From TrEMBL, chain A:
<keyword id="KW-0813">Transport</keyword>
<feature type="domain" description="ABC transporter">
    <location>
        <begin position="2"/>
        <end position="242"/>
    </location>
</feature>
<keyword id="KW-0547">Nucleotide-binding</keyword>
<dbReference type="InterPro" id="IPR003439">
    <property type="entry name" value="ABC_transporter-like_ATP-bd"/>
</dbReference>
<protein>
    <submittedName>
        <fullName>Iron ABC transporter ATP-binding protein</fullName>
    </submittedName>
</protein>
<keyword id="KW-1278">Translocase</keyword>
<dbReference type="GO" id="GO:0005524">
    <property type="term" value="F:ATP binding"/>
</dbReference>
<keyword id="KW-0067">ATP-binding</keyword>
<dbReference type="Pfam" id="PF00005">
    <property type="entry name" value="ABC_tran"/>
</dbReference>
Automatic annotation (TrEMBL), chain B:
<feature type="transmembrane region" description="Helical">
    <location>
        <begin position="302"/>
        <end position="322"/>
    </location>
</feature>
<feature type="transmembrane region" description="Helical">
    <location>
        <begin position="82"/>
        <end position="102"/>
    </location>
</feature>
<dbReference type="InterPro" id="IPR000522">
    <property type="entry name" value="ABC_transptr_permease_BtuC"/>
</dbReference>
<dbReference type="GO" id="GO:0022857">
    <property type="term" value="F:transmembrane transporter activity"/>
</dbReference>
<keyword id="KW-1133">Transmembrane helix</keyword>
<keyword id="KW-0812">Transmembrane</keyword>
<protein>
    <submittedName>
        <fullName>Iron ABC transporter permease</fullName>
    </submittedName>
</protein>
<dbReference type="GO" id="GO:0033214">
    <property type="term" value="P:siderophore-iron import into cell"/>
</dbReference>
<keyword id="KW-0813">Transport</keyword>
């Protein structure tokens, strides 16, 4: 369980978000959505312990990450070990094979000799990701989408208790988006992980997430199951876009874009790296 | 245990993938072995070359002490040429390792102790010591000490940059280039105001030379290089993770800033020691890692030793060349490495462009 209590994040002297509180349960997938610059990446990094909180606290199990209060920021020991964090950037210009990149997911548990058991585990992860045939290729020679699949295999290799995935499907085609998000959901259920995944595609978020975290510049806009959260009013308010909400055969919302609404919301435009 | 056809196929696929990886590792071992063999040959050749040419067989006889040889041979081989040849090996290895880790650390193929100004700082330290004198110490001792101090000062500046800035691969490179320019112009200034004889002496130091190698300086350099090499090797996996980028290394739980600081400090000590005894020898730190990357990839368990081997081989070969370009005379080795290194680097660059 990951609990956020009234957290605030400041970047460059500006409050990026304040008063954000919600709780993520194990075995569920939480989609983080919101317009550009709303702080989706920053939220993930804050949970990971890579960005300091300016107020509030994040609790995971018995560990507690709090605002530094003027002192130098320091996350609790071994705080990061439970997470597998997948950064948004998939640029990787390094002479390592796909298999080696996945094996590196075991960092901290690797000896000088990599035994067959570890390699077998890595091939298993590659098979799950559907890219076993690329195992011996240099990662720098892969397409962006293939790299993203390989990096997700690395995330699985860490055997975390929580996954923080920052736009893991941004470079994937439709089939692979479905494949990867389905895999995310299956692994989350099977291993009882707490999973937060940043998505730009609202329809994918509605399809694959149990709960949706909607961010707007400045803080939390809404939190809850897709059926309850996804309304035309909320999207108009957070995205400044006109949409119509349809329902698919299972009753899940489907978002049909209609048009934009003019005047931009003030806030941290273009802050996202 | 249910074994469907699909399960069996999957099993075979997995086994083949592992086998493929083991074969790749086997290839890397063989390339590493090949480089080690060529390096050994180059060292024998290096010992054989000089004002009085020896045959490689004679060199081997003297080194192993197994068979009859001319009485003079032992004196030439063991006390004159062997320290020089081994110095080429050790210094080349130190430069190779230093360049490799700087490139890993800063995610930049242009990074090396030389391009980040540490060699230039050492040059200034040496020039300054030659000019103002070594506080009563003989030049033999004072010049390396001066070179080492200034090289570490330059490294300290880079270390301060890593400590100050949270993100900063590019900041460190720009800082290093600034250091390079600063010390180069300071050396020029010293040469400009000093006497022609002193200027000549400084110039000679700047060219780099293995001739000053003695068993003492060799032992110091070798000890430092071995210790630093082992320390770097112990962080193999962390460094491999870092080569995927800072963000990704951090996402795997690495304290990037601490690792960068530690590795930079190790590299600084290793290359400053090497430079202070042989002078400025550029290019090896820049090129050797590229050779290693092409041969064995960036799995640091192979990449680091291979960078050291490649660096050692390049400097050893350059030493042979420096003695054979003009028969009977010694061509400054720093000039040879640059003259041979430049076309080689260009070849690597164009080769890279065609592969990517």
């Amino acid at each position: 369980m990951i609990r956020l209590d009234d957290i605030a994040i400041r970047r460059g002297g500006v409050d990026l978000m304040t008063g954000v509180s919600f709780t993520m349960q194990p075995g569920s997938v939480y989609a983080v959505i919101g317009p550009n610059g709303a702080g989706k990446t920053s939220l993930l990094r804050a949970i990971f312990g890579d960005l300091p909180l300016s107020a509030g606290a994040i609790t995971v199990g018995r560990d507690r990450l709090t605002a530094a209060g003027g002192r130098r920021f320091r996350e609790p020991r071994r705080w990061r070990d439970r997470f597998a964090y997948m950064p948004q950037d998939t640029h990787l210009d390094v002479a390592l094979t796909v298999l080696e990149v996945v094996v590196l997911g075991r960092l901290g548990r690797l000896g000088l000799h990599v035994d067959d058991a570890t390699l077998a585990l890595a091939t298993e992860r590659l098979r799950e990701a559907g890219i076993l045939h690329l195992a011996d290729r240099y990662i720098s020679t892969l397409s962006g989408g293939q790299r993203q699949m390989a990096l997700f295999a690395q995330v699985l290799m860490r055997e975390p208790t929580a996954m923080l995935l920052d736009e893991p499907v941004s470079a994937l085609d439709l089939r692979h988006q479905i494949h990867l998000l389905d895999l995310v959901r299956r692994e989350t259920r099977k291993r009882n992980l707490t999973t937060a995944v940043v998505l730009h595609d609202l329809n994918l978020a509605c399809q694959f997430a149990d709960r949706i975290v909607v961010l707007r510049p400045g803080g939390l806009s809404a939190f809850g199951p897709p059926q309850e959260v996804m309304t035309a009013e909320l999207i108009a308010e957070t995205y400044r876009a006109r949409v119509e909400i349809l329902r698919d055969s299972c009753g899940r919302p489907v978002i049909q874009p209609l048009g934009e609404m003019g005047e931009a919301v003030s806030g941290a435009e273009g802050r996202e790296p | 245990m249910p074994t469907s056809k699909a399960d069996i196929v999957a099993d075979v696929d997995a086994t083949l993938t592992i086998l493929q990886h083991r074969r790749r590792e086997g290839r890397r071992w063989r390339v590493t072995g090949l480089f080690a063999a060529i390096l050994s040959a180059s060292i024998v050749l290096d010992i054989a070359t000089g004002p009085s040419m020896l045959s490689p067989a004679e060199v081997l006889r003297s080194l192993t002490g197994w068979a009859e040889r001319a009485p003079m041979t032992d004196a030439i081989v063991r006390s004159l040429r062997l320290p020089m040849a081994l110095m080429a090996l050790v210094v080349g290895a130190a430069m190779g390792a230093g360049g490799a880790q700087m490139q890993t650390l800063l995610a930049n193929p242009m990074a090396s102790p030389y391009t980040l100004g540490m060699a230039a700082a050492a040059g200034f330290g040496a020039a300054l010591t030659l000019t103002v004198g070594g506080f009563g110490l003989p030049d033999m001792v004072a010049v390396p000490v001066g070179a080492f101090i200034f090289s570490m000062l330059a490294a300290g500046f880079l270390l301060a940059l890593t400590a100050l800035r949270r993100r900063g691969g590019d900041t460190i490179i720009l800082g290093g280039i600034a250091v390079l320019f600063l010390f180069q112009s300071l050396v020029s200034l010293i040469q400009f105001i000093s006497s022609p004889e002193l200027s000549q002496q400084i110039l000679f130091w700047l060219f780099g030379s293995l001739t000053k190698a003695t068993w003492t300086t060799l032992s110091i350099t070798a000890a430092v290089t071995v210790v630093c090499g082992i320390l770097l090797f112990a962080d193999s996996w962390k460094l491999a993770a870092l080569s995927m980028g800072e963000m990704r290394a951090a996402s795997l739980g690495i304290n990037v800033r601490r690792l960068r600081f530690k590795v930079l400090a190790i590299v600084a000590i290793m290359t400053a020691t090497a430079t202070s005894f042989v002078g400025v020898i550029g290019f090896i730190g820049l090129v050797a890692p590229h050779v290693a990357r092409i041969c064995v990839g960036e799995d640091q368990r192979f990449f680091l030793p291979m960078s050291m081997l490649a660096g050692a081989l390049m400097l050893s070969a350059a030493s042979v060349l420096s003695k054979s370009i003009v028969p009977g005379a010694l061509f400054p080795i720093g000039i040879v490495t640059a003259l041979v290194g430049v076309p080689f680097l260009l070849w690597l660059i164009f080769r890279r462009g065609s592969v990517a």
